[in-house]
Amino acid sequence: MGSLGVPNLPERQRAIIQAQSPPGKLVLTSDRLVPKPASDEILVRVYAVAANPSDWKMSTQFPCPGAGCGMDFSGVVVATGPGLDPELGIGVGDAVAGAVHGANPIDPQAGSFAEYTCAFADLTWKVPRSLSLTDAAAIGGCCVATVGLALFAEDALGLKFELNQSFENSKPPFVLIYGGSTASGTMAIQLAKLLHYVLDTIVDPKSIVVADKAMGRSGGRYAGLEALPEDVLGGTGSTRKTIKWTYVMGTSMIGREEGLTGPYYSKPRPEKRAFGKWWFRTVVQELMDKGLLKPHPVKLMDGGLEAVPGGVKLLQEKAVSGGKLVYTVQ
């Protein structure tokens, strides 16, 4: 995707935010301030966004009236923060994609469901000319970050990432991806051809039991994409000592305090940000440049930005399967 023209920046924009009531409802506003990028951020004129289950889960489980919503996006950089590291290789006019932490009580201005959004430059990737911006939004950064952490972070499955690695003198690793028809599953399947542990992309008691049995007596590692249900930890499911249980949140890659409640709260974790910078600017960028990552099947939706809440509602009602809902904003 080539560089596009830089528009004159308005003071206000259209955006999807959480309503004052009822909790979790998403509404369109036409009076949202256009944010200014911090030193490590870029300001992106959003071209397309993709809806994720996290968009309704965050707004309903952790309501924050007035907060911006949305995570995955693609668009064009129109401004950079002061002192942005030039070694990142991202500047004004570049087509980029990634994700932001929408529905964030600590940063309520964040959210991709808008005409403009600020994103961390080191957690984005440049869109190659061979990829459309709608497909780029479908890949985005939400699943990319989550699956990257689940598979390769040391405190999750801790697998080695090496393109074209050889197992000529040893048995190839094995990984079970439970929920391969989801967007996260599609991403995990592409990234984990020869791995050893168990990745679960649908967290419920049934899937946990399946993963438990798949590991056999010798056990292994389990990485889910949500916190384990208390009834499982309490003994109705497996808590074998031979299995290391953990869950990951893609937003932890930001490395800052996670201002959510319960098991989802997290103190600042700079090591996650360091992992994220390596993951996005080195690994993901290389994979995208080589055309090795493909999006979940794209369902390009009509209606633009104002139709996004309806798409999020469809995800909440489990009315979407085998596709990624993408909306053009500009």
Automatic annotation (TrEMBL):
Keyword NADP: yes
Family: Belongs to the zinc-containing alcohol dehydrogenase family.
Single GO MF descriptor: oxidoreductase activity, acting on NAD(P)H
Organism: Colletotrichum fructicola (strain Nara gc5) (Anthracnose fungus)
InterPro entries tied to this protein: ADH-like_N, ER, GroES-like_sf, Trans-enoyl_RdTase-like
Membrane-spanning ranges: none
Name of this protein: Trans-enoyl reductase ccsC
Gene3D superfamilies registered for this protein in UniProt: Medium-chain alcohol dehydrogenases, catalytic domain, NAD(P)-binding Rossmann-like Domain
SMART domains linked to this entry: PKS_ER
SUPFAM superfamilies documented for this protein: GroES-like
